[in-house]
Amino acid sequence: MAKPLSAHPSFTLVLIFLYLSCSFHFHIGECHKPKRKAALFIFGDSLFDVGNNNYINTTTLDQANFWPYGETYFKFPTGRFSDGRLISDFIAEYAKLPLLPPFLQLGSQHSYYKGANFASAGAGALVQTFEGSVINMKTQLKNFKKVKTWLKKKLSKSKSQKLLSNAVYIFSIGTNDYLSLFVTNSSVQVSPQYEKMVVGNLTTIVKEIYKIGGRKFGFLNLGDLGCLPGLRILNSSSKNGCLEKASALAKLHNVELYNILLKMKKQMKGFKYSLYDFNSSLRERINHPSKYGLKEGKIACCGREKFRGIHSCGGKRPVGHEFELCQNPSMHVFWDSYHLTETIYQQMAAEMWNGPSNFKSLFQCL
Ligand SMILES: *[C@@H]1O[C@H](CO)[C@@H](O)[C@H](O)[C@H]1NC(C)=O
Ligand SMILES: *[C@@H]1O[C@H](CO)[C@@H](O)[C@H](O)[C@H]1NC(C)=O
Ligand SMILES: *[C@@H]1O[C@H](CO)[C@@H](O)[C@H](O)[C@H]1NC(C)=O
Ligand SMILES: *[C@@H]1O[C@H](CO)[C@@H](O)[C@H](O)[C@H]1NC(C)=O
Ligand SMILES: *[C@@H]1O[C@H](CO)[C@@H](O)[C@H](O)[C@H]1NC(C)=O
Questions:
Q1: pLDDT averaged over the chain?
Q2: How far is the CA of 236 from the centre of ligand 4 (A)?
Q3: Counting ligands in written order, which one lies closest to the CA of residue 132?
Q4: Secondary-structure percent of the chain, ordered helix, strand, coil, rounded to 5
Q5: According to the model, what pLDDT value does residue 366 have?
Q6: Which atom of ligand 5 is nearest to 279's Cα?
Q7: Is residue 104's pLDDT more than 90?
Q8: Residues with Cβ < 8 Å from 156, sequence gap 6 or more?
């Protein structure tokens, strides 16, 4: 009696093993050969804005649709705050997607199957950050929901659901919530735990997208904001010093972001994320430009006065017409008082894709 009985469980085990290995292979196959490439939905600020602000009622402070913006790659101004392409453009390229147009551009729905870009220069996680001049995150989420509705109408419900859950959602947000405290006259009191509110608002947006079906998210932490030329110029006590208060806030933000992401991963089933260490990357390049093929880590290519920290690039802003422009942007870390050159964005995107944050993996598997 004992012998036949013992044979049964092992036979069952073999069957279970066969079943598991089959379904395992099936999964792998599904992962490497999705019917459609993962779409890319882009949210945030000027690091990712490819021209949405060209279409809103704002001021030249939050626009870059004039020369010399775009001079290197596009040869005409697109609205990008750089001499050329942005991190989000390079990520799209790596993912073998086309450059995604601004959501607000006429006809942008032709690329909704591949994704959309909702980012707006000057935007923060808080609605009150540069309120009235930017497309805030709440509105960016609303615009994403419009895309979702459009896709649902064009595809079947299950196909659009699949597209949204296989898509990658990337965010660059927070910088302006802190910058706005230093560059406007409003003596906004920085409430204690201001960073918790900022990251909390970002979390709200991420959870909304998760509820809709999004599972794969990419984030950047913040750099030492006080070392941006536009803020460095505000440190009157030292020749080369950064504005310490601004960097300190960014640091608090980064700690909070890191912790919240771990927490969300624990709490939300299937939530997958990559976090790129923008801070380390920028810091390295500011301090050791020559290691990265650059000549100048602190002074911007375009702007005026110390570090070219006066945000006058292009001569169309309230600070006046005068500005200087360097010969070769690809030798600089900073393009203008607050933004980086295409060269740096390209280097960073390559790190994001292949480095420890491994954005590549977000596009491969569910
Ligand atoms: C744009 O904003 C300005 C200043 O806030 C306002 O005076 C103007 O009426 C607005 N234009 C439109 C078309 O909303
Ligand atoms: C900020 O305050 C300074 C000094 O009080 C003033 O000269 C400047 O015009 C103000 N700027 C804005 C944008 O209100
Ligand atoms: C952002 O945070 C503030 C303060 O906690 C809150 O009043 C507001 O509703 C939040 N907005 C979003 C979109 O979560
Ligand atoms: C200015 O820079 C110096 C040198 O790095 C630093 O010690 C000082 O705290 C900075 N001042 C402010 C206001 O951030
Ligand atoms: C960036 O990283 C450096 C080195 O680890 C750290 O000292 C600094 O506080 C960080 N800055 C921010 C904004 O996190």
A1: 91
A2: 8
A3: 1
A4: 50, 10, 40
A5: 61
A6: 1
A7: yes
A8: none
The confidence score (pLDDT) of residue 155 equals: 96
Q: Is the dihedral of CA 91, 92, 95, 96 positive or negative?
A: negative
* Residue pLDDT, tens place only, 217-241: 999 999 999 999 999 999 999 889 9
**Residue ranges of the domains in the chain?**
35-279+343-363
- 116: phi then psi, degrees, rounded to nearest 5: -160, 155
Q: Any idea which residue has 């910088």 for tokens? A: 175
Distance CA 343, CA 338 (A): 15
Nearest CA to ligand 3 atom 1: 201
Is the pLDDT assigned to residue 212 strictly greater than 50?
yes
Given a contact cutoff of 8 angstroms between Cβ atoms, the answer to whether 333 and 285 are in contact is yes
Cα–ligand 1 centroid distance for 322 (angstroms): 26
User: In angstroms, rounded to a whole number, what is the distance separating the alpha carbons of residues 77 and 49?
Assistant: 13
C-alpha distance from residue 279 to each of 19, 193, 224, 275, 291 (Å): 46, 21, 6, 11, 17
Q: What is the pLDDT of residue 36?
A: 73
Each residue's pLDDT tens digit, 12-38: 444 444 444 433 433 333 444 556 789
- Both tokens assigned to 300: 């911007």
- Evaluate if residue 8 carries a pLDDT over 90: no
* Residue of 13 and 310 predicted with greater confidence: 310
Confirm if 163 and 36 have CB atoms less than 8 A apart. Answer: yes
Q: Show which residues are catalytic.
A: 46, 336, 339
Q: Please determine, for residue 117, whether its predicted confidence score (pLDDT) is greater than 50.
A: yes
The residue whose two tokens read 């990251």 is 199
Q: Does 201 sit in the ligand 3 pocket, CB within 6 Å?
A: yes
Angle (CA) 58 60 62, round 5°: 65
Ligand 3 pocket residue status of 204, Cβ below 6 Å? yes
One-letter amino acid of 134: V
Q: Residues with Cβ < 8 Å from 334, sequence gap 6 or more? A: 228, 229, 298, 299, 300, 301, 307, 308, 340, 341
What DSSP state is assigned to residue 320? B
Does the beta carbon of 241 sit less than 6 angstroms from any atom of ligand 4? Answer: yes
Question: Among 185-199, 247-261, 348-362, whose mean pLDDT is lowest?
Answer: 185-199
Instruction: Name the 3-class secondary structure at 349.
Output: helix
Q: Which fold has domain 35-279+343-363?
A: Rossmann fold (3.40.50)
